[in-house]
Amino acid sequence: MSSLTFIGFGEAGIAFAAAGARAYDVKTEDPATAAEKCADYKAVGVIGCASAAEALAGAETIFCLVTADKVPLVSHDCAPFLPLNSLWFDMNSVAPETKRAAARVIEAAGGRYVDVAVLAPVHPLRFAVPLLVSGPHAGVARERLAAVGFTNVIIVEGGVGKASAIKMIRSVMVKGLEALTAEWILAAEAAGIRDEAVAALNASWPGTDWAAKADYNLERMLTHGIRRAAEMDEVVKTLDALGTGSAMTRGTVQRQRALGALGLSAPHTLNDKLAVLLGRERDQAA
């Protein structure tokens, strides 16, 4: 396997980590988060670096895994340190035009940019997570991803932005359903009809356990709502560029950001989640 570097090392980086790889995450520069991030490096056997320049020296395969709002900044900051012909896998959830802008920066610096869309949560699938790749280097990119260990990589014909467009438009439904589920279950609980509301939806969608789905969706929003809101900002950009309307997705942004901003470790059960969320809402209203 070629030398592997991670730029950004959160949930996805940990899932995709390979012993001996290098990583740089801006959280190591913050005294409040440095110890926790260094512990992440140690837990999976990667070499933590003090700077992007150090992490990128000699790298042939680079996984960029940052929050959506940081993609333009990271591509500009890393470009001066890219080894010639290195493969830059942009695995972030951003709008097609955001990826095309990043690609121009990476390619101008001598790197080879690959648009990657990650289509499922990285845990527990890890290297079996479905990936879409697009752009002029998609063929060699798929071979490199296979060498790293990925087993479910599909090439999407078209330029940079094609894989991203699929992910962005998919997120209208995936993240939108999370937000709608939160709005529905909180209202049902506040009205004292949670069991009846769940039963009604279960009857309408046989085979779906809406209580379990609500529990899971609330957990994802409480844990990842800030990151999801940044992604959905990029979805709004995608929809607005298409001219098809983004009103529902703008609501998704608000709901995802509001739950993520609570800063809660998701309570264990649905009962606990609803009690905490409704209790906080009442406290704020008072």
UniProtKB/TrEMBL annotation:
Domain Phosphogluconate dehydrogenase NAD-binding putative C-terminal positions: 188-258
Gene3D superfamilies the UniProt entry points to: N-(1-d-carboxylethyl)-l-norvaline Dehydrogenase, domain 2 (1.10.1040.10), NAD(P)-binding Rossmann-like Domain (3.40.50.720)
Limits of the 6-phosphogluconate dehydrogenase NADP-binding domain: 4-119
Highest taxon in the source lineage: Bacteria
Active site residues of this protein: 167
InterPro entries in the cross-refs: 6-PGluconate_DH-like_C_sf, 6PGD_dom2, 6PGDH_NADP-bd, HIBADH-related, NAD(P)-bd_dom_sf, Pgluconate_DH_NAD-bd_C
GO MF annotation terms: NADP binding; oxidoreductase activity
Alphabetical UniProt keywords: Oxidoreductase
Pfam families: DUF1932, NAD_binding_2
The name this protein goes by in its record: 6-phosphogluconate dehydrogenase
